[in-house]
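User: Sequence in, structure out. Go.
Assistant: Echoing your sequence, followed by the structure tokens.
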Amino acid sequence: MPDAKPLARAGSLTDVRGLRVGHFTEVRRPTGCTVIIAPEGAVAGVDVRGAAPGTRETELLSPLNAVEKVHAVMLAGGSAFGLDAAGGVMRWLEERGLGVQVGPARIPIVPAAILFDLWVGDASIRPDAASGYAACEAATTDPVAEGNVGAGTGAAVGKLFGIHRAMRGGLGSASVTVGGITVAALVAVNAIGDVIDPQTGEPIAGARSEDGQRLQGTMRSMLRGELLAPMQPGSATTLGVVATDAVLTKAQANKMAQMAHDGFARAINPVHTMSDGDTIFALGTGASGRSANITLLGALGAEMMAVAIVRAVRAATRLSGPGLPDLPAAGDL
């Protein structure tokens, strides 16, 4: 697996030709949204594994359904309220004439998913349509900003012993080019479980000990029979996007999204829980003009997803302040 520690060397989702990424980071409390724009459209798939998802327009990504391409994907904080951000993305795209022509209207296709970050700050402040529009205005082909930005602004990990023993999550990205085809991942890590370094098998961010000074090791604690804090469904969620410039069918895009969940499982433990709405979208821009073995694309997508998860928590910074829980980052322990 590529070395996940040097943050400057792992690439970015914007290495995939045909994609732009923009963040909106809320300054009034830790939350925000991240948009992935495909101006020329991208074939898309999705795979939802968590038990408490919050999504929009995912059913149309089934190979059985008619729409072939999407024009953007929105990831947002704010729990179900954050789905409003996709409306701002639609407005931005419509103003630029992007969408599917249906009779007299051109309708942008914008699947979306949300994570729960209402633990931190004033829960009445969450991403809305203006936030989604602002994220589009900020979208660029530059390397994706990582850490506590966009959808990763209010993210936390390691919440199975209570939010007071959790740590900072965040947003990360990674890419690889093999045989002239690029595969990349972007992820907002807000898991109920710990983040694990796949190279060592050891947690690098997650639930802390009672004194807050060291990592508890959630799975080791569970095996010892230690009791978990009561958790409500939908109080976490990790959201990801895998993308390639290869030519994909909708069935292949859905398989790529499915395989990318292996990256979640390598780097988050436990994952896909009753409190997580873990969702991964897959995008194929076709900009390379080449097809590729979907097993290869799926395997590379899972690998880049695991790298991006580690990068997300390594790029995070400590959360503290009036009315906020004290959540150290990986670099603080």
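User: And one key feature?
Assistant: Helices lie at 85-95, 129-137, 218-223, 250-267, 294-315.
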